[in-house]
Amino acid sequence: MIYFELNNGTKIPALGFGVFQVPDPAVCEQAVTDALNAGYRLIDTAAAYMNEQAVGKAIAKSGIPRDRLFITTKLWVQDASYEKAKDAIDRSLKNLGLDYLDLYLIHQPMGDYYGAYRAMEEAYRAGKLKAIGVSNFYPHILADFCETVDIIPAVDQVELHPFFAQDKALENMKAYGVQPEAWGPFAEGNHNIFRHPVLTKVGQKYGKSAAQVALRWNIQRGVVVIPKSTHKDRIEQNIDVFDFELTPEDMAEISALDLGKSEIVDHTDPAFVKMIHTLKIHD
User: Which position among 40, 49, 104, 113 bears the catalytic label?
Assistant: First the structure.
């Protein structure tokens, strides 16, 4: 495993396991168990995924020492205020059965996320959160945020894959010392990514799949990746990306696939923002 160092000195694995869109408790618990058995130590969930408890059960049953795990969860928009965020942090800790979180992120830059972050800063100073950060903060939002808050976010988790490389966003993160982390590293399966001719051709040189090449490309850009799967064989394959290295020519050929836009979600669409605000995860 490769590790990246966050701006507070914390080490984060370059590759972890995501559980977005795995709401079924039994399926989620088994997937996390398979991931931990395969060697994953970073597990990424969120309050809005409605599976924190299942993740917590898998962690508890694993027997892996707590200090060898890196557990991330996220604050939902419904709880984006100073007072609500304090309760949300404790709720997630209880759901996961943990005394602290390795990383806690603001899920979306919506609602009173500045107030929420103040609560996160307090929890960080108290030791409940070992690192704090954000998700889906695009360059102008992240820049304003970093110029305003006391503690610079350790991570910004955004959509990053060969078809949406976001080079300028990465440059902005680097300027502020923020670690990029990729959600959707497989582009949600778009562009036939698992059989894409360019990724497949590059992979054939190393005996690797198109999926493994896509993950390796991001890691070599300094990006943490959190692929998701509920299939044991794919879970094991996705972590097997540390025994080869892409050449500069490989990297350039893959980067040329960039479309310069997301085809998954438009965070600037007012209808999307309104929809997010209607999603309630608790009473």
Answer: 49
Pairing of strands 11-13, 3-5: antiparallel
pLDDT value for 110: 98
Q: Please give the Cα distance from 135 to 153 (Å, whole number).
A: 10
How far, rounded to the nearest angstrom, does the alpha carbon of residue 138 sit from its chain's CA centroid? 15
Segment 50-62 mean pLDDT: 98
Q: 3-state class of 152 per DSSP?
A: coil
d(CA 51, CA 134): 20
pLDDT in tens, 214-266: 999 999 999 999 999 999 999 999 999 999 999 999 999 999 999 999 999 99
Q: Average pLDDT, stretch 46-75?
A: 98
User: What CATH class has 11-278?
Assistant: alpha beta
Q: What percent of the chain has pLDDT over 70?
A: 100
**Per-residue pLDDT tens for 231-240?**
999 999 999 9
Has 49 been annotated as catalytic?
Answer: yes
133: left (phi over 0), alpha (psi -120 to 50) or beta: beta
Neighbours of 244 (CB within 10 A): 14
Q: Which two tokens stand for residue 113?
A: 């996320």
Q: Which residues contact 72 (CB under 8 A, 6 or more apart)?
A: 16, 42, 43, 44, 45, 101, 102, 103, 104, 105
For the stretch 115-125, pLDDT in tens is 999 999 999 99
DSSP element (H, E) containing 93: helix 82-96
* DSSP H or E run through 159: strand 155-159
> Shortest CA distance to 86 belongs to which of 45, 49, 132, 119?
119
Question: 74 pairs with which residues across the strands?
Answer: 105
Rounded to 5°, angle at Cα 68 from 120 and 14: 75
